[in-house]
Amino acid sequence: MTFRVTAEIEAAFDRDGYYLARGFLAPEETDLLQKTVRADDVRISNAMDIRDASGKRTDLALWNHPGDDLYGMIARSRRMVGAVETLLGGEVYHYHSKLSAKQPREGGAWEWHQDYGYWYANCLFPDMLSVFVAVDRCDRENGCLQAIRGSHKLGRIDHVRIGNQTGADPERVKLALDRLERIYCEMEPGDAFFFHGNTLHASDQNLSDRPRWGLIYCWNRASNDPFREHHHPQYTPLSIVDDAAILACGMRTDSASTTFHRKETEPEVTTPEQA
């Protein structure tokens, strides 16, 4: 059975600011994704080296448009688009994608932040969300996502420089942690974590002997077309595909034709848009 957002899931997302979809990808799809990501030398070689305050790094590859490769088939699948459109309440388009790779023993941490804390500069409404699809098992030992339950209801929080990153105002984060529940998003490969653009989230360093890789798909409502041109796309209609296209695609990456963001030319993307 393919994943669909029920009324109960929608209510949980509205209440908590997130929803963890176990087994979002089928085992065969997960196996294909793992093999494809590990073999995608071009994407990894084009990843930005993002450092935390202690100097530990996360490799972050970022691109704008979903193509005809495996990453694009997952993004454009009816399963993914249908879920996002239900949660955001209308037509959506792909804002950008990321591959976040925390290598064993050296993967860096991300400060507490809201994605809309960065997207606010170009988008009027917080009608946006992200979907973290686990490539590896994600747990406390290797720096899984953390989120503050219900923090999306705080509205946008001012973001400031914190060491080498930009994060949410630490005083406001402390107040939120004093009053709201911190959750650790421990995930198995193929699970998907849907979270609102105003949900506070972070992650610790990967001090384990295991990698912690994840794909992140970022979405915007069509009605929230950015009010200025910037490094992420204006409204771009989606070409939705059947879920079967994921397996049918095979280990296609289209990396050679993908345009990746660069730290030196896109300084905004060095801020922690995503854990």
Question: Describe it for me?
Answer:
This protein is of the alpha+beta class. It is built from eight helices and 13 strands. It has helices spanning 7-16, 27-39, 41-45, 70-76, 78-88, 116-119, 170-179, 245-249; strands at 18-21, 48-51, 57-63, 92-102, 110-113, 128-134, 145-148, 159-162, 165-168, 182-184, 192-196, 201-203, 212-221. The strands form three sheets. The protein has a seven-stranded antiparallel β-sheet with strand order 1-11-6-13-4-3-2. A four-stranded antiparallel β-sheet has the order 5-12-7-10, with helices on one face. A hairpin with a 2-residue loop joins strand 8 and strand 9 (165-168). The protein is globular and about 50 Å long. The chain starts with 6 loop residues before the first helix and ends in a 26-residue tail after the last helix. Mean pLDDT is 93; it is low at 264-275.
